[in-house]
Design a protein that fits this description.
- The complex is a heterodimer of chains A (about 170) and B (about 100).
- Chain A is mainly α and about 170 residues long.
- Chain A has a domain of about 80 residues: NADH-ubiquinone/plastoquinone oxidoreductase chain 6, subunit NuoJ (Four Helix Bundle (Hemerythrin (Met), subunit A)).
- Chain A is built from six helices and no strands.
- The radius of gyration of chain A is 21 Å and the shape is globular.
- Chain A starts with a helix and ends in an 8-residue tail after the last helix.
- Chain B is an all-alpha fold and about 100 residues long.
- Chain B has a single domain, classed as Helix Hairpins, CATH 1.10.287.
- Chain B has three helices and no strands.
- The radius of gyration of chain B is 17 Å and the shape is elongated.
- The chains are: A mainly alpha (about 170), B mainly alpha (about 100).
- At the A-B interface, helix 1, helix 2, helix 3, helix 4 and helix 5 of A face helix 1, helix 2 and helix 3 of B.
Chain lengths: ~170, ~100
């Protein structure tokens, strides 16, 4: 067993445990914190996959900005005090069954039908560096890059319009 | 050397956990987080394949996915706050006012 394999297994266990913790926490704040840990673990995976730029973007955008936004909204709404509602009784077992089916299908396809795509290259100096990604972004993918900035602007305006107080609305 | 299949399997399992979260949880915030988990699993698959094929475009696509996810979260959370302001509740079972 190589060091990389041991590292992969340890990190995979952490990722799975935090994902399940996110799923099963009763308190929404704990869920958010588990998810931050999960995103951090995935960022380490990105480093192992020689994607340092994506790893840092993951930490700043996902684990930083997005999850802070989540925590703010959770604390604003007090999302942990949801009364248990009248859910359809057979919904939960059905959902679990379907999820297991999905996982089984995906893993079956991967292990028995997929073409073997070889192994992971160890982290290199050049591949996936910010300079290389920037090169691609500003040459072949310039239009999508600019469209992304418009998408972010529209999202920002949308969020402000959706949450701003109406005229004469109390509170 | 870790086979790329391991990474894709992990990505599939994380995606399934996210899908399960969307199906079983009633809190829209948790459902949102599960969607983020699914996006993240897809990103992991992208980066793993980018590495295995030596093609940087997979990573570029992940960059776009992250940007769109940020926009989606901003609008989605704003929607949840707006719904809470008008209904005083964020239970997804009660969000049926658009039903004809």
């Amino acid at each position: 067993m190589t060091v990389e394999l041991v590292l992969f297994i340890l990190l995979a266990l952490v990722a799975l445990a935090t994902a399940l913790g996110m799923l099963f926490s009763r308190n929404a704040v704990y869920s958010a914190l588990f998810l931050v840990l999960n995103f951090g673990t995935v960022a380490v995976f990105y480093l192992l996959l020689s994607a340092p730029f994506i790893a840092m973007a993951q930490v700043t955008v996902y684990a930083g900005a997005i999850m802070v936004l989540f925590l703010f909204v959770i604390m604003l709404l007090g999302g942990d005090q949801l009364a248990p509602s009248k859910a359809i009784p057979w919904q939960r077992p059905l959902a679990v069954t379907l999820a297991f089916l999905l996982a089984a299908e995906a893993i079956y396809l991967l292990l028995f039908r997929g073409r073997p795509a070889g192994g992971i290259q160890p982290p290199g100096e050049i591949f996936g560096s910010p300079a290389n990604i920037g090169d691609l972004l500003f040459s072949s993918y310039l239009l999508p890059f600019e469209v992304t900035s418009v998408v972010l602007l529209v999202a920002m305006i949308g969020a402000i319009v959706l949450t701003k107080k109406e005229k004469g609305e109390p509170g | 050397m870790v086979p790329v299949t391991y990474y894709i399997t992990l990505s599939a399992v994380l995606f399934t956990i996210g899908a399960l979260g969307v199906l079983v949880r009633r809190n829209p915030l948790i459902i949102f987080m599960s969607v983020e988990l699914m996006l993240n699993a897809a990103n992991l698959a992208f980066v793993a394949f980018a590495n295995a094929h030596g093609d940087l475009r997979g990573q570029v696509f992940v960059f776009f996915v992250i940007a769109v996810a940020a926009a989606e979260v901003a609008v989605g959370l704003a929607l949840i706050v707006a719904i809470y302001k008008s209904r005083r509740s964020i239970n997804v079972d009660e969000m049926s006012s658009l039903k004809g």
